[in-house]
């Protein structure tokens, strides 16, 4: 009974309260925002914002907890950013998990316009500009190209820093162990 009451209150937070930006159309859901100011002697005004949400409301099958530490925006105390991220995650994952819509959708789920600020590389290429690592000819989802070697597993530019900057010694045996695929191949054969 207590659980049902709390789910109801958290549902109201998503439909008409402080969590409306997390709503995924077609799903009953509940959620709660959180905001905490990080107090230090040196500076004030830095926040940690969060959102926890679940769906469907009556029999939850998915729970997501998003925390944004010191958002790089003017209004840090707003939990909107955590809600937008949770909405994007849930709108993708719920159908993938075969969680079916349980209420009538009132329009489409519109993701936060900030998500559209990242340019597609194909658009850039069409404008005659290429990135510093080569020209992107196509972009999309799929299986991708097979790896040519184990070295491809650690593209030093994928995270923006080199192995040396990250303190990784490629000559160290532990580095080799981390990329030892022979064990994985043996497990698959058994």
From TrEMBL:
One of its GO terms (biological process) is cell wall organization. InterPro entries: Beta-lactam/transpept, Beta-lactam/transpept-like, PCN-bd_Tpept. Residues 4-90 form the Penicillin-binding protein transpeptidase domain. Residues 145-158, 167-190 have a biased composition (Acidic residues). The keyword Membrane applies. Residues 135-190 are annotated as: Disordered. It comes from the Bacteria. One of its GO terms (cellular component) is plasma membrane. Pfam families: Transpeptidase (PF00905). The keyword Lipid metabolism does not apply. Transmembrane segments: none annotated. Keywords: Cell cycle, Cell division, Membrane. It is found in: Membrane. Its main location: membrane. One of its GO terms (molecular function) is penicillin binding. This is Cell division protein FtsI. The lineage of its organism: Bacteria, Bacillati, Bacillota, Clostridia, Lachnospirales.
